[in-house]
Amino acid sequence: MSVKIEDEKIVVDLGGSEAFLKYHVKKDKMYIDATFTPEEHRGKGIGAKMMEAAINYAREKKLKIVPVCPFSVEFFKKHPEYKNMLAG
User: Fold this and answer.
1) Which of these, 3, 4, 63, 69, could form a disulfide with 30 (CB 3.0-4.6 Å)?
2) What digits encode the pLDDT tens for the residues 30-61?
3) Among 79, 78, 66, 85, which residue's Cα sits nearest to residue 23?
4) Mean pLDDT of the residues in the chain
5) What is the CATH number of the domain that holds 19?
6) Which domain holds residue 15?
7) 52 exposure class (CB count in 10 Å sphere: 0-12, 13-18, 19+)
8) Is the pTM of this model over 0.85?
9) Between helices 70-78 and 46-61, what is the axis angle to 10°?
10) 2: confidence class by pLDDT, cuts 50, 70, 90
């Protein structure tokens, strides 16, 4: 499963369809605005892969994360090991 970072979008090619995470950066913060995985591919860890790519990107760019969409909010609740990446 390849994960690509495009302009304010993280994309996973699913062969005929794609999953994506949309974000925007403002000052020193990365806002995770939306995530989408086609229904037939849900529950396979694709969303978590995209979130991990977003976290790695934020680390590289020295950004703090602001989860906006419900999936990203829940991800950070389930993964307290990443709480140091959240904007205060």
Assistant:
1) 63
2) 999 999 999 999 999 999 999 999 999 999 99
3) 66
4) 96
5) 3.40.630.30
6) 3-85
7) middle
8) yes
9) 80
10) confident
